[in-house]
Every structure is written in structure tokens, then in C-alpha cells.
Write a structure and sequence with these properties.
With about 140 residues, this protein is mainly beta. It has one domain: Immunoglobulin-like. The strands form 3 sheets. An 8-stranded antiparallel beta sheet has the order 7-10-11-1-4-6-9-8. A hairpin with an 8-residue loop joins strand 8 and strand 9. The radius of gyration is 14 Å and the shape is globular.
Length: about 140
């Protein structure tokens, strides 16, 4: 599985430092690191920017984070901040670890993903107000 870390931020993202694909605030004491997986089950995460379909994005649960606490109404995906297509997402164990993950879908053409992009990002918050932001590698492909 080709997934990248997602950082949950309890403080504003104004003073953030990029370390790999994880956003770490200047005051990292309030950060919980999680994983995001675009197109779960795919190693290369191929995306055709002109496709009329949707892109699934999973926020994975762990021993220290319950992905069922994600506020779907706060989520924005891709450079253009696409809103979830189904407006509610769904729960599913996408990585087979026995923990329930949160999956939402985004209309490809609303994401702003362009040919040549090598990663896509999601941002939002939990229902408790904890900010989240994270990215995963993608491969753009022709029609």
C-alpha cells in the first residue's frame, strides 16, 4: 500500500514546517500522525484528471486515532478543495488491520488535479475540532 502520513493538528497551521509529506506545526506537541490512502488497494494511485468518475480517499484509523471522528463536512481534497461527493463518506476497514477507516469520494474534475501532479492532499477536521491535513502519492495518466 502506497500511503502517506496525515497530520492532525490541534493548533493553527499558520506556522507549519514540511517534513516529508507530514505537516508538522512549529509547536509539534499537539500533533497526532496518521495515514491517508488515495485509491485504497492501488500501489500507484492512477488518476486521469479528465475522468468523470470519483476518487476514493481513506483516512486510516490506528491505535491512537479513531478515523470515525472525521467531520466529513470539513473535508476538502485536491488543489481546488473538492467537497465529498456523497456528503457523508462511509466507514470501512480498507487496510485489513481490524480498525474502521473513514472513506470519502471526490469528483475527479472538481479536485484540480492536473497532468504531471505527483501527489494530492486532503484537509479538514475531526468533529472535536482537531485540524487535519495530509497527502499521498499519485500518478496522472492519459484518457
Amino acid at each position: 500500500m502506497n500511503n502517506r502520513k496525515i497530520a492532525l493538528l490541534a493548533i493553527p497551521i499558520f506556522a507549519a514546517i514540511m517534513i516529508g509529506a507530514t505537516v508538522v506545526p512549529a509547536h509539534a506537541g499537539n500533533t497526532i500522525t496518521q495515514l491517508v490512502d488515495i485509491k485504497p488497494g492501488s500501489e500507484t494511485n492512477p488518476i486521469n484528471p479528465f475522468n468523470n468518475g470519483v476518487i476514493p480517499v481513506a483516512i486510516l484509523s490506528s491505535a491512537t486515532f479513531d478515523a470515525t471522528t472525521v467531520d466529513v463536512g470539513s473535508l476538502a481534497f485536491g488543489p481546488d478543495g473538492a467537497e465529498p461527493f456523497h456528503r457523508n463518506g462511509h466507514m470501512e476497514d480498507v487496510d485489513g488491520d481490524g480498525l474502521t477507516d473513514f472513506v470519502s469520494h471526490y469528483r475527479t474534475q472538481e479536485t484540480g488535479i492536473a497532468f504531471g501532479d505527483t501527489e494530492a492532499c486532503i484537509r479538514g477536521a475531526t468533529i472535536g475540532g482537531l485540524g487535519l491535513s495530509g497527502c499521498d502519492d499519485i500518478t496522472t495518466v492519459p484518457q
